[in-house]
Model the fold of this input.
Amino acid sequence: MKLTQMILFFGIVFVVYGIINYYIIKRLLSIIPDQYKGIALTISLFVVLSYLAGRVLENFWISYLSDFLVWVGSFWIAIMFYSFLAIMLVDFVRLINWAIPFLPEALFKNPLKTRQFIAMIVSVFVIIMVGGGHITTRMIQIKKYAISINKKAGSLKSLKIVMASDLHLGTINGSKFAYKIVDRINKLNPDIILFAGDIIDEDIKPVLRDNVGNALLKLRAKYGVYGITGNHEYIGGVNKAVEYLNNHNIKMIRDSYVLIDNSFYVVGRDDRASNRFSDYHRKTLEEIMSGVNKELPVIMMDHQPFNLEEAQKNGIDLQLSGHTHNGQLWPLNYILKKIYELPWGYKIKGNTHYYVSCGVGGWGPPVRSGSAPEIVQIELNFKGK
Done:
C-alpha cells in the first residue's frame, strides 16, 4: 500500500470515526449520574478503541485476546451506526421544536428523566437492528437465474455458474464460515465457481492461523474455481493474498483471461483500488480483451461495479461484480442507489448481462440489515447457431 494513500485513507476514517463517537459518548454521559460517569467513559473508550486495538494486535500476536477485541469492536461499529442515526433524529426533532415549539411542556419538567426515557427507546431500536441484523448474517440465500446468450460455446449447450463475492475471510468469517460456504456451493453441483473479489478480509494472518484454506481445497467444479482481487486484498497486501488463494484451489485471474475447454472465456480484472493501494495500474478492458475471440461467450469478473458501459462496449456477455454489500446496514442501501447504476441484482444493457451480488460475507460488524447474504447460481444457456 502506498504510504501517502494509506495515511490519507485511514486519516479520514479515524477523524470521522472519532467525531461520531464523541457525539455519542457526550450524549451518553448526559444521562449517567455523576458517580458513574468515570466508569461509563472508561467502558465507552474501551469499545470505541477495541476494533483498532484488535487489528493492530493481530499483526504481532494473534490470540483469543485479539479475536475478542475485533469482535467487540466489530459489533460496536453497528451499534455506533444505529445509535448515531437515532440520536441525530432526536436532535433534529429538538431543533424543530426550538424553532416551532410543538412538544408537550411536560417533557421538559424533568430533563434528566426525559433524556433517560429517550435513551431507553434508542437502546431498544439499536438492539433490534443489531440483533436482527446479526441473525440475518446466518440466513444465506441461494439466488437462481437463467440467462441466454446468442452465441455458440463449442459443444456446450449450457453452463452452471455458481458465483459468490465478498467472503471477507478472516477473524470474523473464519474456518467455520468457510466450510459452510463451501458446503452450500458444492451442493449446487456447479460447472464452474467464480469468486468476484474481497475473498480475504485485509490481513491474511487470521486466515493462516485458522487454516481457512483447507475449506477452499474442498471446492469442486468441472471447470475449476476462479477468483479476482477486490479492494480488501489490496488493503491487506495483495501479493500474499493472491499467492495464498492460488495455493488453495482458487485460480486468480489478474487483468487477463482464461479460455476454458475452447468454449468460453473468463476475464478477470484487477480491482480498481490497485492504483490507490499499490504501484500497480490495472489494464484497460480494451487491453485485456485484445486477444479474446468475441465469437465465443465472454464472462467477466470486476469487483466494483462502476462504468457498466465498458463491458457493453467491449463485447462482454456477462459481468459479475460485488463490493457494494447493498449497503450491508440499512438504510445505506438507499444511498448506494445514488452512487451505482446497479448496486445489487440483475440488469441487461444491450447484449450484456450484469449481476452485482450483495455478498455472502461482510466487512466489519457481523450484521446485515440491508439484505441477506447470498450465493448466486446462474444457468447460462448458449443459443447461437
